[in-house]
Amino acid sequence: MTAHKTRPGPAPGLEKTATLDEVKLMPGDALQLQPLVEGPQERLTVRIIGVMKPKSVLVTAPMIDGKLIFVRDGQPFLVRAFSGLNVCAFKAKVLKAQHAPFPYLHLSYPETVQLMRIRKAVRARVQIIAALYDRAGGRQIGAGRIVDLSVGGARIQVPRGFPVPGEQVYLAFKIRLDDIEEIVETSAAMRSVADEDDEEGRPATALGVQFGELNPQQRLLIMNLVYQYLLKETD
């Protein structure tokens, strides 16, 4: 009997061509629209309403600071999204901009999409205030700033001279995602301690921590927040 070899997925940084079906985007997933015109352009974030294969991809109309952004029929975009550990990209044009019963867009359905594998530990640079406690429900020992975040853990900058905890610390930080706001409270194992300067050049200490068990809602919120930051950074 001939052994069948398992086809490996794309290595980090390598691209492959796929179909939109394979990406399995779901209603509510975020997409980034980059206008295909010369010069600097603001990237617009929208959310999937549904997919009508092979006709169109329905998305919310883009808004900035609560104001609707004008999009014309036929306008071309480079569309990016995250699926699992892949970032996908495809070109699409606006088939129709609708305003009733609410503003939304019909984007053209792509024949193919490009998938690029991203690192297994998906991380993003953030700026989130975190409170640190000596134990669950215990005494607050100080506050720091999360500057690097993933579902598995974080890097937290605290002032130089901060009383570094022992093997474990308890954290509380607020996640804001669109209209959702939730306080995440979790234990965290100390993995590293290093002196560095913060973004303003002030002496700081960086605590590398690994989160304890998160509930499914917390994991989903953190992953969506990380993806949202990555969508802004991805070229």
From TrEMBL:
Family matches, as Gene3D superfamilies: Electron Transport, Fmn-binding Protein, Chain A, predicted glycosyltransferase like domains
Record domain PilZ: where: 119-228
Protein name: Flagellar brake protein
Organism: Parasulfuritortus cantonensis
Pfam families named in the record: PilZ, PilZNR
UniProt GO molecular function: cyclic-di-GMP binding
The entry's keywords: Bacterial flagellum, c-di-GMP, Cell projection, Cilium, Flagellum, Nucleotide-binding
Cited InterPro entries: PilZ_domain (IPR009875), Split_barrel_FMN-bd (IPR012349), T3SS_YcgR_PilZN (IPR009926)
Highest taxon in the source lineage: Bacteria
